[in-house]
Amino acid sequence: MALDFPAQAKALALVSVLSGSVSTYKIGLQLYTAAGPAILQAVAATGAKIFLDLKLHDIPNTVAKAVGAAGDLGVQMLTVHLSGGSAMLKAAVEAKAPHLALLGVTVLTSSTQETLGEIGIASQLQDQVIRLADLGKSSGVDGLITSPREVGVLRARLGPDITLVTPGVRPAWAAADDQKRFTTPREALKGGADYLVIGRPITAAADPKAAVERIVEELAD
Ligand code: C5P
Q1: Residue 49 Cα, ligand 1 centroid: separation in angstroms?
Q2: 0.90 exceeded by the pTM?
Q3: Catalytic center residues
Q4: How far apart are CA 106 and CA 131, in angstroms?
Q5: Which residue has the least CA distance to atom 11 on ligand 1?
Q6: Any bridge partners for residue 2, and if so which?
Q7: Cα separation of 211 and 205, whole Å?
Q8: 167 Cα–ligand 1 center, Å
Q9: pLDDT of 178-196, one tens digit each?
Q10: Taking Cα atoms as reference points, which of 94, 92, 5 lies closest to residue 56?
Q11: 197 close to ligand 1 (CB < 6 Angstrom)
């Protein structure tokens, strides 16, 4: 579940409400910058796993050191930008603790063909996603973050051994919010996703625990 909150108190209140229903919490740049490593310890103390979504992209040595530090903090998943290239990715893979899964980000879903053009990438956006996914696999990352619309293509191309994580999923009863290219949780799983990242359908629900249970029931059907 995406724990997209501005500060620790609100985040921990929701973790407490959802206790036992959610296996892993995704903590991103906003909450981590506001609350620091203490938020990781507080969430881990509830027995949940942590997906630290920092989307690292820097020189190989700096990324390797940050990956090592994240491993020391006990997180189970960490994101890196695949556009950092193979030297950065291989340094990250070498530095990671055995319990840490390194997940690669291909092209952000907020990027368009125009965005790629602005930074000098002439490839078609879909080709760029595939190129980066292949680079991630050959560099040894454990998994990829992917749109649920692309998860089937990537699963077919990369095989069963890579972990595919999809944000941008919406149950039929939830608001789309700003997500444009979403699918239902069930469709994402059928396409081959291993993990679903879901935020506002749970955080904005009047009863967040009931929302999680409804999603789990729909997946089990
Ligand atoms: O609230 P919602 O379910 O849309 O949250 C999805 C989470 O996944 C957010 O933390 C968002 O930043 C993240 N994400 C995304 N699309 C991507 C990459 C990350 O929605 N391509």
Answers
A1: 18
A2: yes
A3: 55
A4: 9
A5: 167
A6: 26
A7: 7
A8: 5
A9: 988 889 999 999 999 999 9
A10: 92
A11: yes
CA-nearest residue, atom 13 of ligand 1: 167
Q: DSSP class of residue 100?
A: P
Is the pLDDT reported for residue 221 higher than 80?
A: no
* Residue 149 dihedral angles phi and psi, to the nearest 5°: -75, -20
Structure tokens at 74: 């006990």
Q: What Å distances lie between residue 100 and 58, 67, 91, 137, CA to CA? A: 19, 9, 14, 16
Does residue 194 line the site of ligand 1, with CB under 6 A?
A: no
From atom 10 of ligand 1, which residue's Cα is the shortest distance away?
2
According to DSSP, residue 205 is labeled S
Give yes or no for residue 28 CB within 6 A of ligand 1: yes
**Residue 140, token pair as written in the block:** 């040894």
CA of 178 relative to ligand 1 center, distance in Å: 10
Buried b (16+ CB within 10 A) or exposed e, 167-204: bbbbbeebeeeebeebbbbbbbbebbbebbbbbbbbbe
Q: Report pLDDT digits (tens) over 89-101.
A: 999 999 999 999 9
Which residue minimizes the CA distance to atom 5 of ligand 1? 199
Nearest to 40 by CA among 56, 24, 18: 24
